[in-house]
Amino acid sequence: MKTDVNKFKEYKTITEISGPLMLVNSVSGVTYGELVEITLPDGQLRHGQVLEINGDRALVQLFESTIGMGTNGSKAKFLGKGIEFGMSPEILGRVFDGFGRPIDDGPEILPEVSTDVNGLAINPYSREHPEDFIQTGISCIDCLYTLVRGQKLPIFSGSGFPHMQIAAQITRQAKVTGQAEQFVVIFAALGITFEEADFFISNLRQTGALERSVLFINLANDPVIERIATPRFALTAAEYLAYQKDMHVLVILADLTNYCEALREVSAARKEVPGRRGYPGYMYTDLSTIYERAGKLKGKKGSITQFPILTLPSDDITHPIPDLTGYITEGQIVLSRPLHREGVYPPADILPSLSRLMQKGIGRGKTREDHSDVANQLYAAYARGRRAKELALILGEDALSYEDKKFYDFVDHMERRFIRQGEYENRTIEQTLDLGWELLADLPEAELKRIRPAHVEKYLRKFQEKLRAKQAAE
């Protein structure tokens, strides 16, 4: 620990400024992550954080622009503490910048607690396994890649896709079935456009959800260093509300691709050896410090569920950002450009999407006893229908068998009726599963090999009779 004298000691030994980085020589007692206050010759103040210590030299990462800064006459003061965020229940309904400063013309927050934003990942021993089904009201998510409380389930999107609309719809509609509590929403904007941020804020305000939300806004023209801090402020607020105030928190981080680009920019300024495609070799570790702060803790009523949004560069799912994300998170929702072109909302690509915790959150007492069978059969039928469409492109539709033609048509029915739904349409899980049975009833029963006989008798027969009656009436 440093002495009190050293806490207020100012250093005039700034020797180099490169991009967002500054080098200070002949320092003592300085620690990693410590805050730094820089005073310019004209009295202006800049702020930064210790990024690296090497002997008596400290590498400082500046939060503001270094334009106009020089080494002569500037002084650095090390403050003896890390970045902290002062919180109280008053943060609900407020809008902050990426450093946790209010930007909504409201009063300053009177903190109940102040916490270092560089929190730790949840200890696996302290984790409670996620198993509470979250109903989003979106059929393809609820049925095929179910979200559970405490999960981290990213959206792999592309340029021009309606990922913000999907996130806003989930924000409005998400609830844990059988419980009255609504989710508190924490939205962290990471380098997105003003239009995207304004859409989300306006949507929350119009639906009355802003009162149970906390927003952290870092726009595309805001400092890169702020972008790296923004998700940590958001997750610190989430941990406070979840584990100290027993709330269910839904954290939306958009766009993690911009966050990773900021990491690459700082890494290049530090002259580090680049990894894949120029990204730093520690990007996996850095992303894990964000994703692994989601979950449920033993003995705590609250929970943190994460919905990160990633824009895939050139729609490349093998890009390092989605690739590394997939190793850490419990699945992904992949959006499809062909479906988006056809006007399908949400344009979810069924086959590459999955939820690894789905089986823990479905079944009797959680959703419905037939959920697993319906999801498995819909997925299998859709996959077979896609293969039939590929075969028809080569051989023509006339070369398809009767069964293959049925599955060929099934793809169109599923995309038009099951995947597609209105932006403000909120379907219950019962409506979603019934719709799935309605689609399956039109397929040859002998081909439905993933449904247990008991569910065939209890559910399928009923929808087959309805389909025959409808066809007879037509």
Automatic annotation (TrEMBL):
Residue span(s) of domain ATPase F1/V1/A1 complex alpha/beta subunit nucleotide-binding: 137-355
Superkingdom classification of source: Bacteria
SUPFAM superfamilies given in the database record: C-terminal domain of alpha and beta subunits of F1 ATP synthase (SSF47917), P-loop containing nucleoside triphosphate hydrolases (SSF52540)
GO annotation (BP), single: proton motive force-driven plasma membrane ATP synthesis
Positions of the ATP synthase A/B type C-terminal domain: 360-459
Any one GO MF annotation of this record: ATP binding
Keywords: ATP synthesis, Hydrogen ion transport, Ion transport, Transport
Residues of the ATPase F1/V1/A1 complex alpha/beta subunit N-terminal domain: 14-80
Gene3D superfamilies: 3.40.50.12240
One Pfam family it belongs to: ATP-synt_ab_N
Record function comment: Produces ATP from ADP in the presence of a proton gradient across the membrane. The V-type beta chain is a regulatory subunit.
Similarity remark: Belongs to the ATPase alpha/beta chains family.
Protein name: V-type ATP synthase beta chain
